């Protein structure tokens, strides 16, 4: 009997033996069950590791109360309240910077006339904005990248104003010298909550400290806590009654939030010797 016949004979004998076949089936089933269970546990562990249930989310949002203005009128004051809320799951430190955007439009000077015999009393134009019946590239009040000299702002289907001066992404400097046209827009801050010298902030809590273009909040924000208001309002100075009539102006707050690690110092470019912000936060960061 050759090898092939021997294997065939052995298999037929095994099949005829019901007890032996049953034992083999039982062992095979157990191996399959154990293998499947191991595979399920391994898969479950991998899902838990990927989810990392102990990881918490760092997040903060700017909350604004603002009376939106498209065409600014001289002497009009508009509410502009800005604060930050920790809407994450872990403590955070926050700072704000303020970016200004401005666009003014051509003034009509076609009806020059003299008010009296004194040439010094001449008035140029009617102080109205010059209107056009057609447009070039349109300006979108919501999209400051379209604020470009020569672009037109639609008043209605047949009336357009043309931009003659544009400033974009100008960082507001608290206490600094402002030049026109931005000097015409006066920002009113919450006076009791803003400081820009270490002496003025000594012994205070829950305030904003201004330094080098940033307003740093003095306290660590726990989850769902909110800062005090930074701003109260914005006003277009009445002295510029005609000069900036109909101007577009935007003030956009930019917020940074950071966890309580020492990397905050390098990430925010805070100088340990020259910047008071370092003294403000050094004892609040993880050792």
General description of the model:
Keywords: Membrane, Transmembrane, Transmembrane helix. This is Alternate signal-mediated exported protein. InterPro entries: BsaA. The chain crosses the membrane at residues 20-41. It comes from Candidatus Enterococcus ferrettii. By secondary structure, the protein is of the alpha+beta class. It folds into two domains: 3-51; 61-281, no CATH class. The protein contains five helices and 14 strands. It has helices at residues 3-16, 18-51, 198-201, 263-267, 276-281, and strands at residues 61-66, 77-85, 93-105, 113-114, 122-123, 131-132, 152-156, 159-171, 185-189, 194-195, 208-211, 214-217, 231-236, 248-258. Strands 3, 6, 7, 8, 10, 11, 12 and 14 form an eight-stranded mixed sheet that branches. The longest helix is centred in the first third of the chain and has 34 residues, at 18-51. The chain is globular and about 90 Å long. The protein starts with a helix and ends in a 6-residue tail after the last helix.
């Amino acid at each position: 009997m050759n090898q092939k016949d021997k294997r065939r004979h052995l298999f037929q004998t095994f099949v005829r033996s019901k007890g032996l076949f049953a034992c083999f089936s039982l062992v095979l089933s157990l191996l399959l069950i154990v293998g499947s269970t191991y595979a399920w546990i391994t898969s479950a562990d991998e899902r838990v590791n990927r989810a990392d249930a102990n990881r918490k989310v760092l997040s903060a949002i700017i909350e604004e109360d603002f009376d939106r203005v498209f065409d600014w009128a001289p002497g009009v004051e508009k509410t502009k309240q800005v604060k930050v809320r920790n809407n994450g799951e872990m403590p955070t430190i926050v700072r704000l910077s303020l970016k200004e955007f401005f666009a003014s439009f051509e003034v009509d000077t076609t009806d020059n006339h003299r008010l009296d015999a004194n040439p010094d009393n001449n008035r140029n134009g009617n102080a109205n904005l010059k209107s056009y019946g057609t447009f070039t590239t349109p300006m979108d009040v919501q999209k400051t990248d379209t604020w470009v000299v020569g672009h037109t702002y639609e008043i209605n289907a047949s009336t357009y104003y043309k931009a003659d001066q544009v400033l974009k992404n100008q960082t507001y400097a608290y206490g600094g010298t402002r030049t026109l046209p931005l000097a015409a827009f006066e920002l009113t801050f919450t006076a009791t909550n803003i400081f820009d010298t270490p002496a003025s902030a000594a012994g205070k809590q829950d305030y904003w400290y201004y330094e080098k273009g940033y307003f740093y909040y003095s306290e660590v924000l726990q989850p769902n806590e909110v800062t005090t208001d930074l701003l109260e309002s914005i006003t277009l100075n009445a002295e510029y009654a005609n000069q900036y009539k109909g101007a577009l102006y935007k003030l956009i707050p930019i917020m940074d939030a950071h966890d309580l690690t020492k990397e905050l110092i390098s990430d925010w470019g805070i100088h340990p010797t020259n910047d008071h912000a370092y003294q403000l936060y050094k004892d609040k960061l993880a050792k």
